[in-house]
């Protein structure tokens, strides 16, 4: 009887151990994505791909590596890089500089993350694209060659974090590069900031998804050329880009002040835009509560990361605790509603919308018609980043 009891106890313990998950949500989400083979530079057919989602995920792994010193994360980034690069160090995976896409460049920081000089060839190749990349008359990089004169918030995260990481590592005294990076952020802000509410939209003072400098896109507003809605993930990309670039751009450069001022303007408005009953954000932020609108998970995780990182690094003052409070409540909603525990050591992440683009008419009906995607890497990586910040809050917060 006693023996049976001991055996049963051992059996129960072994199940626990097999199903054990790391106490850190950041590590749990990262390990689950690694177990699924996500973000390793290969697409679902095992072919090399230059994907910004992989870039975002590898950025999250890098922060985890720097916090924990766990080489598993470092090795995974390096494997992801090696899967894409050709033997002579140039970028494979179908990358072509003359498509003038900002998206692929988001992988660039992975080339500098390992601090191995052998990856400089690939980093140089991405950097050279920026020298020939088409721009608006004001100097904003086009989002892609097929979207002439269009600046999208997404593109700031894709292009500028790499631009800054490259400049920091290889050209830290290049003032025109720092000026140019600053210009990308400020032009995007000036051209997409919501200045008043039009019919049926809520005034938030936040940024529309994008703008067309030539005002010819079907969605371009007649007055300023901006797109019609504030999409949570686009603003999430831009917010993360601010928080990340501020820690790269030298504080002695005037651009640092410009980015600080933008983040300080947006942060309280983002916190205030959270839905009061759930503490997270609507997919289409300009139309809270409208039928078919819903709480989307990738944008929420991005906001939590940007707010907490901004406060932790002293970019935003939060003496009243409003920003950290909003971020903590949103993170609690995420773990209660969007994290699914498999009981075998891995978790799923739900409610991330697959895409949102300004390829069509960019209206409410378009955004809410896009499917959501289980374990979408854009959402998983953002949840790692949000959790990474939550887990660094002092205990008395
Ligand atoms: C590093 O992380 C991996 C994945 O979570 C884990 O299996 C391993 O035990 C960790 N190693 C150390 C030394 O903590
Ligand atoms: C690198 O290798 C690829 C594939 O063999 C080739 O097309 C390319 O021209 C090479 N680039 C350089 C700079 O040697
Ligand atoms: C510095 O950056 C500017 C702007 O990107 C670029 O045109 C220039 O070539 C860079 N200078 C050097 C020495 O690479
Ligand atoms: C953005 O707008 C501000 C305020 O009007 C102005 O001072 C600044 O020069 C503008 N920046 C750019 C790059 O247009
Ligand atoms: C404003 O909302 C009403 C009611 O939901 C709807 O019938 C109308 O089409 C909307 N107008 C615009 C411009 O979206
Ligand atoms: C954990 O459970 C999920 C859901 O049943 C399954 O898809 C996954 O393959 C399992 N993972 C491991 C590592 O056993």
TrEMBL record:
Gene3D superfamilies: 1.50.10.10. Residues 1-20 form the signal peptide. SUPFAM superfamilies: Six-hairpin glycosidases (SSF48208). It holds the Pfam family Glyco_hydro_88. Coiled coil: none annotated. Keywords: Hydrolase, Signal. GO terms for molecular function: hydrolase activity. The keyword Hydrolase applies. The keyword Hydrolase applies. One of its GO terms (biological process) is carbohydrate metabolic process. This is Glycoside hydrolase family 105 protein. It comes from Hermanssonia centrifuga.
